[in-house]
Specification:
alpha+beta; Fumarylacetoacetate hydrolase, domain 2; 431 residues; binds calcium ion
Amino acid sequence: MSGQTTIQRSWVEAANGHADFPLQNLPLGIFSHGDDQKRAGVAIGDSILDLRALRSTGLVAGEALQAIEATQSGVLNAFFELGLVARVALREVLHSLLVEGAQHRQVVEECLVNAADCVMHLPARINDYTDFYVGIEHAKNVGKLFRPDNPLLPNYKYVPIGYHGRASTIRPSGVDVQRPNGQTLPAGESTPVLGPTARLDYELEIGVWVGKGNQLGELVSISEASDHIAGLCLLNDWSARDVQAWEYQPLGPFLSKSFITTISPWVVTMEALEPFRRPQPKRPDGDPQPLTYLLSEIDQAHGAFDIELEVLIQTERMRSEGLSPQRLTLSNTLSMYWTVAQMLTHHTVNGCQLQAGDLFGSGTLSGAEPGQYGSLLEITEGGKKPVVLSSGEERRFLEDGDEIFLRARCVRPGMVSIGFGECRGKIVKAC
Ligand code: CA
């Protein structure tokens, strides 16, 4: 497995010390350049290595070539389906071509395009999207707002809770978020009204890309589950809290969540994340152990990730006054009560078929302390305590013109840090 045994530099100068895309990351995505067709690329520094152009150089052969050929349709589904071996073969070839001192530098240099001149697209055709609820601090914080004495329902510590979300409204970073209309029940009234949501919120999540799928009726065991995961991205599960409060019982979220979901367009592979794996944090005393089908020694020892997560806001006024985006949240994926492998295995325990390119959301990843809450619902206690911004403005929920930025970064002493790239969306008025 390609870890970071020695710290190596790239001949792509901007990659060295790059916040997101040094040589050690090599995430895959789908981009277009001018009027050209969508095609697969790899982020390196401020450039994208065009895999179609690389293929035509004849420098790549064997399994790595097969991997590139699986990306030629302009989506990564077929590449994901090839699984771990193909992904590692491609990663090794890319590394050997981009490392400092590599042969063929001039030929490979011809395959680089300036990322700033490109448009990023969704990396895969997403057939199904499931949003989990594995951030236990978020579950407690939200539970407390509704049930102060009993924030967590009894199933939480046994079941990686989730619901089936809407795949058709997932968009890459940068697409505007139109304030949705919906039914809400005004305070003290018994009849709902239709109108733009007044309680628009963000949710800080990671996205999990399903690699190899499974057959209908077939369980993916916990020991095999990580072979079925291709990589991670950032995910903002935009939420209309007033719509949600009225519609969610008894079947869960519906239109309060399905108007748009924003993801970061680069797939950060499991191989790039390998150095940032951690043991799954020990459950507090008194918590039950997971049922056997969700328990594996390797997953418990290695199944969590140490990824720093951040949310920033920039309002219209902040932009016009030249004020930088302001941090709302700083948290970490170590707050996940279930591992990504447990999420995937649980999803298939009933025989549900997953397909390459399916996407999971983790659920909001809040920490336990103020400053670590992954949504405004938690930060403002349901709108009761506004946040004061550097512009002097207050926010209980999001206003038109507000832009929300999610960031993710993996940091470990002695290792080159990697990031996930941008995941942003700006609120525009309802129609
Ligand atoms: Ca969510």
